[in-house]
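Task: encode each sequence below as structure tokens.

Item 1
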Amino acid sequence: MLAPFTTSAFKKELLRILDYWETYAPDTQRGGFHGRVSYENKPVPDAPRSVVVTARILWTFSMANRLLHKRRYLAHAQSAYNYLERYFLDRGQGGVYWSVTADGQPLDARKQIYGQSFAIYGLSEYYRATKYPPALALAKGLFEKIEKHAYDPERQGYLEAFAPDWSETDDLILSKKPWVKSMNTHLHLIEAYTNLYRVWPTDLLRQRITSMLDAILTHIVRADSHRMQLFFTKNWEPKDDIISYGHDIEASWLLYETAEVLHDPTLLARLRERAVRMAEAAATGLGADGALHYEYDPATQHTNTDRSWWVLAEQMVGFYNAYQLSGQAHFRDKAEGTWRYIQEKFVDNEKGEWYGTVKEDGTPLKNDKIHFWKGPYHNARACAEMWHRLGRK
């Protein structure tokens, strides 16, 4: 029997997700959290660990402790914080490594701005939950490094990645030369800066957030289609036309959240319309089952019809946010349909957590439950958001 679209249902699912990560993710021998756990919930001992997933775990358990006030969640947040501070922090060059070995040795030491962003996101949430000054100090230090090396004062926005010593590099992971700016990095950097602003509301940070938001709305979100383009040169020349439905719907609510945190009436008015338009554009990627396709490439007319755990999580929040902003009932219907699909197709009642990928015909792929990119942040955050938006009690 499916759970209703209610606060209690989302709280229950949030607790279920947290229970999985408490049970299977911690590495009790080497500290921190396993870099990979199989579908059978068996850890892969030598799997490398990414700063992205470590920071997302830090954010998730910090959020859980802040909302649910359970000491065991704080313990897991502390474990993630200690691991990030001890093994990912580059004490010589500053910033955080992209990945480390299972033994905590630097594996990929480049300075990926996407990775720095999630470290700020996790650290700022940890500070929100604990008021632990060293966590805020680390987040401020990462902000200063990003501003010193990655900020583009002439053209707005931020460059993609740097060598371990913060010099220029052609090895960009998430992008390619000359595609030195990307949608994905800007989306998650503004997400991180927004969370940092909650606990450190300085004029410079506010200025940078406002500037980045303007760059996103001017260069990344197309005015004609209300969709985002993915990769750019330094001069913001777009280099592809691929439509990423999940990122479009995720951005629709994250960018509006930024305006809310800034308490800027002008930005709120500007983002209200854009958020709804972006949700409308993303909805064209919905299949008959109510789930978004992964992406569409106009150049080849190929649609990747896989359903992804993170896309479904973000579409539920994004469509409900559009309903809250517009009052249009069809958006609420889409959010409720997403919740039904998640329960029917993504929630793994046997092994726990959510499947990472479900095929268009509804068949789940029984891949790793935890890996270099898959953490608890998208689905745990979606449940927390819906719990809050429906009137958390």
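Item 2
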Amino acid sequence: MGSNPASSTFELPFPLPLDGGQTLANAVIAYESYGTLSAERDNAILLCHALTGDQFVASPHPLTGKPGWWERMVGPGKPIDTGRFHVICANIVGGCMGSTGPGSVGPDGKPYAMRFPVITIRDMVRASVALLDGLGIERLHAVVGGSMGGMQALSLAANFPERAERVLAIATTARHSAQNIAFHEVGRQAVMADPDWQGGDYYGSGRAPDKGLSVARMAAHITYLSEAGLTEKFGRNLQDRPDGSRGAKSFGFDADFQIESYLRYQGSGFTQRFDANSYLYITRAMDYFDLAEEHGGRLADAFAGTTARFCLVSFDSDWLYPTAESRHVVHALNAAGAPVSFVELSAPHGHDSFLLEHAALDRVVRGFIG
């Protein structure tokens, strides 16, 4: 089977119903696919991306030129083997890489901006299921996701239990904690405090809230790391300067420490590929996510009647979605009688560990995907 990526778009043939009571007409989903769909259409894997991800999971990003965000995991002979499986990764509704989002043109010919309807994780999943319907894929071999992608994987299993044989959710949660919401709110306020945000109507103005979005990215990026990882990589090391000196010359506000320089680099690079309004909408969707609340307040009821096999993976240094969150989901699956395996892996890199080299994670993914 081939493994060359194919970029495509799919316009939903019906208005997408949203949890907020509105509908989104003429919604477009942009996606990448890898590998060949079997004649029986039974080898498809849906990959769900995280907050700052997109559909370019195993192909170079068109704006930055950087490798796909999970290129180490997806490809011929890799744990998610595109020589065997047809892998689909779609940019979520509300995103900014081709799928309909706040920057898209609305029915009146103007960008939606903050007129875009509020979306939820379940809305994102509805759009993905509509895409699968359009592709003629009734049942997935597996749905896979990490972080917000894991939320989508769990939501698909709960709301469309017949659509996936296997569900692999990595470094994720069934609901956002107060701390999660608090960090997101700091980021949103940074964006909205930037004068260039202009109430969200910055499209076509030549000005965008890049400074605010950069600060939001910096704050969020801290939550993706671990104290041990930061200490090992940066410690209190001072920044080398062009003149050969090091550290603070006049105790000003330049990037005196290496960690400061690193965060500023992360923030500035992010603004090149992400839309600030999309960031507002997607973080809000994550904050609204509560899988138990969607199903009467009992998480086990969310998985009643599921026929899928589940695997949950957490990392011991992840304090954004700690292992206790995965165990909470595992206990609910046990109560629902669903087959589930669970592993906590040791890694020094915090929440981002699922994106980085990790031989044990590779073995888990390869073994579960089958």
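Check on item 2: Residues 6-176+290-369 form a domain with the Rossmann fold fold (CATH 3.40.50.1820). The chain has a mean pLDDT of 93.
End of task.
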